[in-house]
Design goal:
It is a single chain. Helices cover about 45% and strands about 10% of the residues. It is of the alpha+beta class and about 270 residues long. It has a 4-stranded antiparallel β-sheet with strand order 1-2-6-5. Helix 4 runs parallel beside helix 5 and helix 4 packs across helix 7. The chain is globular.
Length: about 270
């Protein structure tokens, strides 16, 4: 409710929009088609005629990510890009350098762009952030990585961004908690991500940087169901050009606008 009431208003150096994640296709929005849409600007759900959950196992989505993935696109324009997430050691033990049907959209756009994957060395050096922000999950799996506070992780992410024009970080424990429909776990991930996001906003350079936070579907906001929702998703813009980008997104107000909006910002 608070997000809905705050959406579609411009604030000082920031904007919050509500974007349609259904993409004009019947059924609940899903990760594979939603993320493919975010990272290519093409309505993937409309292309398939349905929403695809999980990984982009459909060949049409794979080809779309390969040809129009946002990393590859920006690299071709001469921009420096990186995926800030750290991968576990077992990923590199199985990694062959070729695409697999079990890879996420973010892994595929990084692979197709020929960018390096960040792993244990980068994580220990403070040059990557694990998907749970704090390394708690890594430690529970038996890996000896030190715990990191959300504030420290945020500072590391902003410091890393200084070396690139476009940097992407993916956090999906909100989705995991939403599916479990566990109030305690929801509160935990929200508190961690809120502290992380708040520190990013405080640490970034508002005169030169743009922070864009968006989701591919809703589910955490509803405590009554374990599935995704038909609710619009928040698109938070903070920093330079936030009003201009928000104005661009207002034209479509769905996930297809994120890719061209970033193009417009760099342009």
């Amino acid at each position: 409710k608070l997000v809905r009431e705050a959406a579609d208003h411009a604030y000082a150096h920031s904007c919050l929009l509500a974007l349609d994640a259904t993409l004009g296709v019947e059924g609940l929005p899903q990760s594979a088609t939603g993320q493919t849409t975010l990272f290519t600007g093409i309505n993937a759900a409309s292309l398939l005629g349905f929403h695809l959950r999980g990984f982009p196992t459909n060949d049409l989505l794979g080809e779309l990510l390969k040809k129009r993935g946002i990393f590859r696109h920006f690299l071709d324009r001469g921009l420096r890009c990186t995926f800030a997430n750290a991968y576990r050691p077992d990923f590199f033990q199985c990694f062959t350098g070729a695409a697999q049907r079990s890879y996420s959209c973010t892994t595929l756009i990084n692979l197709y762009a020929g960018l390096p994957f960040r792993g244990p060395e980068e994580l220990l050096a403070g040059r990557a952030v694990y998907m749970d922000i704090t390394n708690e999950i890594l430690r529970s799996l038996g890996y000896a990585f030190p715990l990191v506070t959300p504030h420290m992780a945020a500072k590391r992410l902003v410091a890393l961004s200084r070396e690139y024009d476009f940097i992407l970080y993916e956090y999906f424990l909100t989705d995991v908690a939403g599916h479990k429909c566990n109030h305690g776990e929801k509160e935990k991930v929200i508190r961690i991500f809120d502290a992380f996001l708040g520190e990013v906003v405080q640490t970034m350079d508002w005169q030169n940087d743009l922070l864009l936070m968006v989701s591919d579907h809703g589910n955490l906001e509803c405590s009554l169901i374990k599935t995704h929702t038909l609710n619009p998703v928040p698109a938070l813009l903070v920093g330079r050009g936030s009003e201009k980008v928000a104005g661009f997104l207002q034209k479509n107000k769905d996930l297809t606008g994120i890719f061209p909006a970033l193009e417009a910002w760099f342009g």
